[in-house]
Amino acid sequence: MSEPSQAASIPRVILLHGLWMAGVTMQPLARRLRAQGFEPEVLGYRSIAESPGVAIDALLEELREGGPAHVVGHSMGGLVALHALRTDPQAQVGRVLCLGSPLCGSGAAEKLSGFRLSNLYFGRSRRILVEGCTTWPQGVEVGMIAGSSPHGLGRFFGRFESEHDGTVAVEETRAPGLADHLVLRVSHLGMVLSAEVARQAGRFLAQGRFDRG
Fold it and tell me: Domain with 40 in it: what CATH number?
């Protein structure tokens, strides 16, 4: 793993999309990070047809072949990133930023999994969403941007009793050990389109903290 003091000098950023998404959905965020001086790369994967293990292996291969990189994962993409680091604690990663990732497990996914034909929705990704990921190798700085704009299909299944982004509850993103946590008025899907999310993402990747000024 890269030492925290070296993380600021890493320009490369690997972007991972979430469930039912495709690599193209991360392009707006990639363009905004590129304008901030980073070198973003989008890693697409088949979130429904394949198991998360395929995406985990692909990410680790990118880190081995391309050299050190930060990783930004939207929703399930953040879980893939952290599980990859648990698989290979020596992976050359700078900082990891999760965008609306249910690190403490997704209540909406758990409830939806009880419905008939839910496998058509989750494919082979149900387990990683329900279980989440609250631990990762020591020394890795992990940040989280959560959303509080309650617009999304998940609200019909999650029965949220507190702040949420329409799919994931803010409390589901508050894993112990996060280097920083920020709540913005964005929806789950809107995160990857938000200029403010992109600005804060760049700030965290560069400094390990969000801008609260």
Answer: 3.40.50.1820
Span 165-169, average pLDDT: 93
**Whole-prediction pTM:** 0.91
Which residues in 115-137 are b (16+ Cβ under 10 Å) and which e? eeeeeeebbbbbebbbbbbeebe
User: pLDDT tens digit string along 14-69?
Assistant: 999 999 888 899 999 999 999 999 999 999 998 887 889 999 999 999 999 999 99
Exposed, middle or buried by CB within 10 Å (0-12, 13-18, 19+), for 209?
A: middle
Domain assignment of residue 213, yes or no: no
Spatial contact of 96 and 73, defined as CB atoms under 8 Å apart: yes
Domain region containing 123: 4-207
From CA 100, how far away is CA 164, in angstroms rounded? 9
According to DSSP, the residues that pair with 169 across neighbouring strands are 164
Is 17 within the bounds of a domain? yes
